[in-house]
Specification:
- By secondary structure, the protein is α+β, with helices and mostly antiparallel strands.
- The chain has eleven helices and 18 strands.
- The strands form four sheets. Strands 2-1-6-7-8-9-10 form a seven-stranded antiparallel β-sheet. A six-stranded mixed β-sheet has the order 11-15-16-5-17-18, sandwiched between helices.
- Strand 15, helix 10 and strand 16 form a beta-alpha-beta unit.
- The longest helix has 21 residues.
- The chain starts with a strand and ends in a 37-residue tail after the last helix.
Length: 442
């Protein structure tokens, strides 16, 4: 489970910002939210199951997800993919002269087998500046600390002994320890690997997982139930592999495959949807088979592709992080997906969902607690600030969605003077005053 994630000097994040899944000490207007939307981790700490991030276009919502994705990928691959002199593919905040020479920082607090860890690192394109790992059972203790080429290991992290000299300047010590089968480091890498970060705009990212899961009979039935639930008119699904030909080239085929040589044998997985058909009097007249990729809507295609990572997260208690969750989905579908994570029957292992969205239909005090709503907003210097609705003086019966659109919480686009585009010589009304900073609770 995810507790917190912090990032600094990465893409649009200049100063350190912290995203938290820790439930605030508050009472919702709808008491059921306090029962269903959070779960107990420790006596002194509850966590939310779902968190939504709102903000204007280019506000930094996606960059928050990219930051976690970078950390995840680098933890998993730094020791095996990068070469000794290869640069690290990290992008710092570029709109300030000071940050150019400063390292980027990433830190996650998470739970593995009921043990809390705090792990992070600082790096630039050339090397790792620092790296640290803490563990907390009763109280937090340091397992190792790295400052440049200097390593300080505690006795409880004996798995790292002797590996300091095997760690390159552009590789993480934790990744090296996991490569040598260290127990703690391997568990942490497994946790990062179990976290799934996807884009709601790119089905190709997660469609292969769904196809693989579809081969299992019990999972197939769950995927089919998921598709039926959203009223796409689909009665059944089928999958088959067939030779790739010019006639059945899918529109979303990767470019690398498009150049296959004539006569080369390649197989492609084809998903078909099966619909009932009726005669002119409304009587059942059989079935009609459609190709999912060629004949169904983009929303239907996404629903199939998304069903895999969704069901995988719910079944195994994973963290699912989605950019543009609502893209190509009707608002009722997006809401139903969130409700699956809130539902104790659907989500018995307390899987967590974090997503970026523009869907204000979810900004409802009957649906979300205030600590589940986050905002990303850029300041006049182009740096993203991240904050929660908990930071505002908001009544429990407030209309979250309306107040957000009205600009009471910030994180909305400022659109002024657009009428000048349509007025000859650009002589329109003066640009209205800039919006005032929203008032946050102290």
């Amino acid at each position: 489970m995810l507790i917190e994630f912090s990032v600094e000097n990465y893409k649009s994040f200049k100063d350190c910002v912290t995203f938290s899944m820790v439930a605030a000490n508050l009472r919702s207007k709808n008491k059921k939210l306090d029962e269903n939307n959070i779960f107990h981790y420790k006596k002194s700490m509850d966590l939310v199951k779902v968190a939504a991030v709102y903000g204007a276009n280019a506000s930094g919502k996606s960059n928050l997800i990219r930051a976690f994705r970078f950390m995840r990928r680098f933890v998993i691959n730094s020791s095996k993919e990068s070469q000794a002199e290869e640069e690290i593919d990290v992008e710092n905040f570029r709109l300030c002269t000071e940050t150019k020479k400063m390292p980027s920082s990433f830190e996650s607090i998470f739970v593995v087998d009921d043990v809390r860890y705090r792990y992070g690192f600082e790096l630039d394109r050339k090397k790792i500046h620092s790296e640290w790992l803490y563990r907390a059972k009763e109280r937090e203790t340091n397992l190792f600390m790295r400052e440049g080429d200097d390593f300080s290991l505690k006795g409880t992290f004996s798995e790292g002994r002797g590996l300091e000299t095997k760690t390159r300047k552009n590789a993480l010590f934790l990744s090296v320890c996991a490569q040598w089968n260290g127990a703690i480091s391997t568990d942490i890498l497994k946790w990062f690997r179990s976290c799934v970060t996807i884009s709601g705009l790119d089905d190709l990212e997660y469609k292969p997982l769904t196809i693989k899961m579809f081969e299992a009979r019990d999972i197939k039935e769950r995927i089919l139930s998921f598709i039926r639930e959203f009223d796409f008119g689909i009665d059944n699904l089928s999958m088959k592999s067939s030779p790739l030909t010019a006639e059945n080239l899918p529109m979303d085929l990767p470019d690398a495959v498009l150049g296959f040589r004539s006569g080369e044998k390649l197989d492609i997985t084809v998903i078909n949807t099966i619909h009932k058909k009726y005669d002119g009097k409304g009587r059942y007249a059989g079935e009609e088979v459609f190709n999912l990729e060629k004949n169904e809507s983009e929303g239907t295609q996404k629903a199939f592709s998304f069903s895999g990572p969704l069901l995988d997260a719910l079944s195994n208690g994973k963290v699912l992080i989605v950019d543009e969750l609502d893209a190509r989905f009707h608002p009722t579908i997006t809401k139903a997906i969130v409700q699956m994570f809130h539902g104790k029957n659907y989500n018995p292992k307390n899987a967590q969902l974090v997503f970026a969205t523009h869907d204000t239909n979810l900004l409802d005090n009957r649906f979300f607690r205030r600590d589940q709503i986050w905002f990303a907003e850029k300041n006049k210097f182009g740096a993203t600030d991240l904050y929660s609705l908990v930071e505002f003086k908001v009544r429990n019966d407030a209309s979250f969605g309306k107040d957000y659109i009205d600009g009471k919480y910030g994180a909305v686009p400022f659109i002024g003077g657009i009428e000048k585009i349509f007025i000859e010589n650009g002589n329109g009304e003066d640009r209205p005053d800039a919006k005032k900073e929203p008032e946050k609770s102290k």
